[in-house]
Known about the structure:
By secondary structure, the protein is α/β, with parallel strands linked by helices. The protein has a single domain (2-200, 228-244), classed as Copper homeostasis (CutC) domain (TIM Barrel), CATH 3.20.20.380. It is 38% helix and 18% strand. It has 10 helices and 10 strands. The strands form 2 sheets. Strands 7-6-5-4-3-2-1-8 form an 8-stranded parallel beta sheet. Strand 6 (141-146), helix 7 (157-167) and strand 7 form a beta-alpha-beta unit. The longest helix is centred in the N-terminal third of the chain and has 16 residues, at 68-83. The radius of gyration is 18 Å and the shape is globular.
Amino acid sequence: MILEVCVDSYTSMVTARNAGADRIELCSALNIGGLTPSYGLMKKAKEIEDIEIFAMIRPRSGDFLYDDNEFETMKNDIAIAKQLEFDGIVVGILLPDGKIDLERMRELIKAANPLDVVLHRAFDDAKNPMEDISELVNMGICRILTSGQRENALAGVEYIAHIQQKFGDSITIMPGCGVNVDNIEQIYNLTGCTQYHLSGKVNVGSQMEYRECIQRMNTSTNEFVVERADYDLIKKAREVLDKIG
């Protein structure tokens, strides 16, 4: 049973590794769904050598329809991930009609070679993505991260179970979004999936003492929200998976 933890800082990465994560999805701006990590964070992350690391390749927040400049940016970021010898990348591109952009996905897989390539939750925004899974397998996608096209993996468990039953022998189906220690065993029992994705993050609070700027500049208090991976939440999820498998 594989536990993947999504983090957006080196501190959270260390916590996740120590709590029993098998693999890291490294990104920035996890609070908006995750973006491409900075070069500095990617380079720092490589100081930890005893865990798999996959880099998110997402040039901006919002939808997954990218213009030519954004697409070139993604290829440049992939080149950095290759240079730093990451284990893989996590990416997804859609067409205006909502279908998965298979042509551009092939280009990114070619650019990433020999790194593994994962299709992230653009799959959940896509139109009828199940129709494209066989082609995704053929082009070399190793794993699909999905909440079953619903707001979280537990809500989408029926869809996840269906694609796991139909395609699980040829590609890894990994439930993610809202997965936690309280529902991970239930999701396993309903889907049979053997890899799980979670963040296990909590608000640890800002250490800033000076906060007069909130009133003076009408600054949102969200600037003082600092989220980090939580050792206990991840460790407990690890223990559940170990009990299952």
